[in-house]
Automatic annotation (TrEMBL):
<dbReference type="Pfam" id="PF00903">
    <property type="entry name" value="Glyoxalase"/>
</dbReference>
<dbReference type="InterPro" id="IPR004360">
    <property type="entry name" value="Glyas_Fos-R_dOase_dom"/>
</dbReference>
<dbReference type="InterPro" id="IPR029068">
    <property type="entry name" value="Glyas_Bleomycin-R_OHBP_Dase"/>
</dbReference>
<feature type="domain" description="VOC">
    <location>
        <begin position="31"/>
        <end position="152"/>
    </location>
</feature>
<feature type="signal peptide">
    <location>
        <begin position="1"/>
        <end position="22"/>
    </location>
</feature>
<keyword id="KW-0732">Signal</keyword>
<dbReference type="InterPro" id="IPR050383">
    <property type="entry name" value="GlyoxalaseI/FosfomycinResist"/>
</dbReference>
<protein>
    <submittedName>
        <fullName>VOC family protein</fullName>
    </submittedName>
</protein>
<dbReference type="InterPro" id="IPR037523">
    <property type="entry name" value="VOC_core"/>
</dbReference>
Length: 154
């Protein structure tokens, strides 16, 4: 009975704390709203993010042919804005990450489209497995922004 209580009491207390926090409905004071990337060719970048990555487009308020907006989470967007004069070099440490159901299925899409990708250490045509078991790969969008694709289940 002591072992049962030793196990059940901490679990019950933890559950109570989680339940109270969930019921409090308190929202974080700061939320991510969007990330913007500045691109040379809006059509090419829209194709990349919509058709290759698989993001859903959403209405954008400008209707000026210079913006494409994508839904990337609850109340979070990716804004692609045209007008850049040229693509620039970016460090892999500064990247946008998207999670997919299957990195292996995503790889097939990349290979079909002849899109280059690499692991974090830079091994071309390979993905890596993080210490927590998440598969990840990196590729560049048409303007050289690094994109991580992984199968994290958060």
């Amino acid at each position: 009975m002591k072992n049962f209580l030793r196990f059940c009491l901490p679990v019950a207390l933890l559950f109570s704390v989680v339940l109270v926090k969930a019921q409090s409905g308190k929202k974080p004071s700061v939320l991510m709203n969007h990330v913007a990337v500045y691109v040379v060719d809006l059509e090419k970048s829209t194709h990349f993010y919509r058709d290759l990555v698989g993001l859903d487009t959403m209405p954008e308020p400008f209707h000026d042919g210079k913006h494409a907006w994508f839904r990337v989470g609850e109340n979070c967007h990716l804004h692609v804005i045209s007008g850049a004069k040229e693509a620039t070099t970016h460090d892999k440490n500064a990247h946008i990450c998207f999670s997919v159901a299957s990195v292996d299925d995503f790889l097939k899409k990349l290979q079909k489209e002849n899109i280059e990708f690499e692991s974090w250490p830079g091994e071309k045509g390979k993905y890596a497995v993080r210490v927590d078991g998440v598969k990840q790969l990196y590729l560049k969008d048409p303007d050289g922004y690094w994109i991580e694709i992984n199968d994290a289940k958060y």
